[in-house]
Write a structure and sequence with these properties.
It is found in: Cell membrane. The protein has 431 residues and is mainly α. It is built from 18 helices and no strands.
Length: 431
């Protein structure tokens, strides 16, 4: 299987040399080199609904984890007020797990070794649930931050392993749709989970929001235990493969750079969307959760629109649109203008996760799990970098500085994607 895991994408461009310099060979089903390299394709005797039920359970797991990672976005002000820290310091609740998740994506992928992937995913979800319940009862900000570090371990490991599981759960002809559904959990979480958590925090307090995500984690654990089949590993990724793929595959390098620029720009602005909407757009605090819900609906639509289109072209359109949107939301006042721009923001960013995953699978069809772990690591490092840079901008300059900085990074991403086809068209031996 090659680019089938990227739904609706064009055939993969000429790829670089194999990670260790040898000639590429087409992946063989069941040998651990096909997408989802952890095992063989689903058995023909399994009922189709069981495979799709397992896909839904994995998607729920990603939704739960990303919701947990980004939950503080809508709760920065109340958490900071309750625990006596500034908005910028409270932003560390996003920065810290992002950094940990970035390190843990490759570490867990390699460290999982020959362990059954079902066991690994369940353990990571359980860790996330416990961490959120601990945060809900934390007496001070230091304890909350410690719990957030555990969330980062769960996010990085789960996302990196889950990215290639669709090939093991559904027939080959359905892998594209299944992969889109699995990664649909990412934008759905960032654009629906956050506003739902914000609303719950406004109604019952921020501790109730953390407790609810912890409870959702326990429900997700039960779903994974019931619906996931055994997923024994058949290929053990080693640490040298990670830098080798990044060094020798120019398309993978470009994808990692684009991921960093787009996601850093996004979270420099989005982490502080609440103060931006209040201070620049003049939106009443009582309407923030409702507007974020609208942002969420637009984002989900953007995810499924992007899932049927070429990854490179989609990322060029997305990064270009976000450059304009973030620049405008930083300078144009008015609740109506702010609302329109927020909805456009959600629609554009909703296509990012599935597109960058499609880019990486097309760039390295011979090593999809390795490429995915690199993308997930950079995605989460970028979340942390964006939240940190945005916090420094908000505390040191003003709220509008965060989206303006994000717009500059989006412009850099658009230029990088635009140059991508030239890079990808070069011959494998052209270093």
């Amino acid at each position: 299987m090659t680019s089938a895991a990227a739904p609706g994408n064009d055939p993969a461009p000429p790829s670089e040399s194999a990670p260790h310099g040898g000639p590429e060979s087409p992946p063989r089903p069941g040998d651990g080199t096909a997408p989802g390299a952890a095992g063989a394709a689903p058995g023909s005797g399994a009922a189709p609904w069981k495979g799709w039920a397992a896909v839904c359970a994995v998607s729920l797991g990603i939704f739960c984890l990303i919701t947990s990672e980004l939950l503080p976005v809508g709760l920065l002000t109340p958490v900071g007020a309750a625990l006596g820290v500034s908005d910028g310091t409270a932003g560390l609740m996003v920065t810290a797990p992002g950094l940990v998740a970035g390190f843990c994506a490759p570490l867990v992928t390699v460290g999982a070794g020959r362990l059954d992937r079902r066991f690994v995913l369940c353990a990571l979800i359980a860790l996330m649930a416990v961490a959120n319940l601990a945060a809900a009862s934390a007496p001070n900000f230091a304890v909350v931050l410690a719990a957030r570090l555990l969330v980062g371990v769960s996010v990085g490991g789960f996302w990196a392993i889950a990215g290639g599981l669709a090939v093991r759960l559904v027939p080959e002809r359905q892998v594209g749709r299944a992969t889109a559904l699995v990664f649909g959990g990412v934008p759905t979480a960032s654009v629906l989970g956050v506003p739902a958590g914000t609303l719950l925090g406004e109604l019952g307090g921020w501790r109730a929001a953390f407790a609810a995500v912890g409870a959702l984690g326990l429900v997700t654990l039960a779903a994974l235990l019931v619906l996931l089949p055994p997923l024994p590993a058949t290929r053990h990724i080693t640490f040298p493969e990670l830098p080798a793929l990044l060094r020798e595959n120019r398309a993978v390098r470009a994808g990692v750079i684009v991921t960093f620029l787009v996601v850093t720009g996004q979270f420099a602005a989005y982490t502080f969307v609440r103060p931006i909407l209040q201070e620049v757009s003049g939106v009443d605090a009582r309407h923030i959760s409702t507007l974020l819900l609208g942002y969420g609906v637009a984002g989900v639509a953007g995810n499924f629109l992007a899932g049927t289109r070429d990854a490179y072209r989609t990322l060029l359109v997305v990064s270009s649109c976000l450059t304009v949107i973030l620049a405008l939301i930083a300078v144009l006042p008015g609740p109506v203008v702010g609302t329109v721009l927020l909805l456009a923001w959600g629609l554009a960013y909703g296509g990012v996760s599935v597109s960058v995953q499609g880019w990486m699978i097309k760039a390295a069809p011979e090593a999809p799990e390795t490429a995915s772990s690199l993308m997930v690591a950079m995605f989460n490092f970028a979340i942390a970098a964006g939240a940190l840079c945005g916090g420094l901008a908000v505390d040191g300059i003003s709220a509008p500085a965060a989206p303006l900085g994000g717009a500059a990074l989006m412009l850099a991403a658009a230029v990088t994607v635009w140059a991508g086809p030239v890079v990808l068209a070069r011959t494998p031996g052209d270093k």
